[in-house]
Amino acid sequence: MGVQMFVLQGSVRDTREEAAPAPIRLRVKLFNAKKDVLAEKTVLAGSDVPGIGFPEGIPLDNSALKEGWVPFTVVFFDPGVIADFSVTVEPS
Fold first, then answer.
1. Is cis: bond before 23, omega within 30 of 0?
2. d(CA 63, CA 40)
């Protein structure tokens, strides 16, 4: 059997009063149906060097984003059965 991947791509804008410039540190969590945490990672949105093990072929194009928004992509391998997820901005 092959490896399963869960790929989450999006964009985020830090609107806190003392918002930090990109890259923005994000905490991503995956949950099962009982709301137990299956997996979690801290990633950098807007970083040119994500360092999270991107498989080949996942585009990192952010040309369609409005000013102030930065892209993020996070990849989880074999996470289990996912019922929900959360993405939060971590303090710098």
1. yes
2. 28
Tokens of residue 36, six digits: 């137990």
Scanning 1-92, the segments in alpha helix (DSSP H) are: none
Nearest Cα residue to 28 out of 91, 85, 92, 66: 85
The sign of the torsion formed by the CA atoms of 85, 43, 46, 24 equals positive
Q: Are the C-beta atoms of 3 and 77 separated by less than 8 Å? A: yes
Tell me how far apart the alpha carbons of residues 79 and 23 are, in angstroms, rounded to a whole number. Answer: 25
- The answer to whether 87 touches 27, Cβ cutoff 8 Å, is yes
- Residues near 85 by beta carbon (within 8 Å), at least 6 away in sequence: 8, 28, 29, 30, 31
Look at residue 63 in the predicted model and tell me its pLDDT: 46
- Asked whether residue 33 carries a pLDDT value surpassing 90, the answer given is yes
Bridge partners, residue 89, by sequence = 26
